[in-house]
Amino acid sequence: MGLLIFSVGLWVLITKSAYISILQSFFESVKALVVVFIGIGAAMMFLGLWGSLGFYFGAKFVMVGYIVLLLLIVAVHFFSGFFVSSQNQQMEDKLKKTALNLIWHYNPTDKANQHGEKTWDYLQVQLSCCGWTGPENWENNTFFQHKMGTYPCSCSIPSTSFQPAPGVCRLNTVSRHSGVSDWPVNKQGCGTRVQKRLKKIVDAISLVSFMVIAFEVLGIGLSFYICTGRNVCAVDRR
Fold first, then answer.
1. Which pLDDT score is estimated for 22?
2. What predicted TM-score, i.e. pTM, was given to this entire model?
């Protein structure tokens, strides 16, 4: 189980999935949390070895230390899970606010936030959506306001025409009154779809965490049984 949680944490850290990337772009603390997740997995693998050696050599103090450390890890899992659950709504609000801020300041000629912009473009293409609640979110973007007749290519319905710059497409016909309503783009916003995909990832990580906690509790019970129920730790192994 330690190896499983370590592997999941490592996968989240190095994966190229856009949904993980957007979380890492939007929440600076995600990377630190993932590192903690990996650390817990490594600690559990060490504890498994520690407990096995303690049982084999009949060292009661090692088994007691094993139980205490497992109790500590269970407490960390429980309170961190409770904290994340209580912050769920705040995280969704921050995700929405950060996504809208990214859309409003989107500028393919500025390399300052290129990673976040590419991630958002990828999401719009993969999910066939535009903006957070819809393409109208792009009305506040100054880049497209100044470049009349252009729109984000990633919002396009599959057939796109001219592409003068990365991430930018141009309307076939442009007039003074051209606006978002004239863009040949998907009308569905990305907000709901992104949240559903991220929820699946969070649910998978939560399932792994629940399994780990269950095995930790089992390990604590088994250790108590070994040390007190049968007094195996006191057996002379000469």
1. 61
2. 0.66
